User: Fold this.
Amino acid sequence: MQSNLQEDDPILTTSEVARLLGVATSTVQIWMESGAIESWKTPGGHRRTRLSLVQGLMHGDDQARSTPNPSTDKEYQPASQPGYPVGVGERSRLAALAATGLVDTDEEARFDRLVRLASMVTGSPIALISLLTSTRQWFKARVGLAARETPRDWAFCSHAILKNELFVVEDAMEDERFRTNPLVLQEPHIRFYAGVPLRDKSGQPLGTLCVIDREPRRLRAAEVQGLIDLAEIASSEIQATGRNVRN
Assistant:
């Protein structure tokens, strides 16, 4: 009986799963590590899963996780002609974001607290925790801004996640990348922006902790360090969330 069960539901390697789903092996590894695909490690440290678990992800049945499915959800597939800069690992980055299950979830005190502190530490009227899908930037937490999301094409954060450190725009009207941006020409009339990438356990940048002002300015050294420290805390919170965020 056990033998028949194993034949009907064979064990798959990460490469075999990648072929089934039509994604890169590295993407499957991220899904498995995050729990988006249930798996286990062999004594040699290699990830394995069952065919039934992959089929559940493909067909969206009750075995599929509550996280988005990057193999079918266009919001988590790289844009064919993006109107924003992207890194070489955009597909894996989007898969990692999907695995958190954070986008479109309710407000949470732990993240709201961090944006309030970022606003206070830097003296900025606007502070955000922004997560970037392929189509939009969605705000998990926000202070000083009514909108819950914007098109990805408008996101200053698309530039920030390509950096390994703080990304700063001291005067958007003097920066050719941003002077015609709708967020600069219209509400909230961004002139100053500073953002720090928020990363998952594998180092993928999922979004930013950023602060915004309506006047050109610079950050002092203490403000920079405070923002970086808060971003590290936000990253730790995201990493602790995993696939159970909606449970």
